[in-house]
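Worked problem 6 (solution included).
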Amino acid sequence: MTKHENEQVDQRQLTQISRFVPQLRRTAVISTSTDVLTDIYQEDVNIAVWQQQLSDDMILSAQQLVTQFPHLKVVMTVAPADTYKQLAEHLGLFANNHEICLKISLLVDMFCTLFDLKRVGLRLTALETAMCPKFHVDKVPCRLVTTFTGSATQWLNNNIIDRSKLGAGSLGISDEQSGLYRASSHINQLSVGDVALLKGDGWFHNEGGGLVHRSPSLKTGEKRLLLTLDFSD
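Solution. The predicted structure is:
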């Protein structure tokens, strides 16, 4: 057997072995109590979800906002003390923005308190199509996501995925065909109002353990209002 053939065999053996190497143990924690968000500090947790019901007024305001501003995209860096004012200025033409501005201000304050941050990167976006349609992992420490109206973020449990099929590993084919996960029933989805902390590969000692997630497909005519908060440099 030639040296080249030996190298090919060795590579095939390494590929086969890698499929059976145990993945990092990563789990989800979900609760109707805000205390669940502190569980993101647990090493084996890569998503913490605070389940909550939005008020009818809040949902109506969100629906009116994306209808009036279908291409809304607010991107800014804010501190808890000035979030409401900055948002109100951006949404000044929208009469019913009080509840949304207040809610986002509270989330900014919670995020900053939880991670001892002075400022955060805020993005409030109206969407008519999936922003990130393929499953992926964020290269950030942690991201807060919540949807005020429309379909919410989808995610996968760590123990049922083949991470080698992420990104270029999918060979350009869909998540459904690549072998990333075994069945569509394994796809989890947040609900409107849920506040989720998604731990990324940028978290300390979490490379290869970040939450695998994607934006949902939207039905024709469906509009989504998405908020994300990130650590600010």
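Discussion: Residues 149 and 224 are 5 Å apart (CA to CA).
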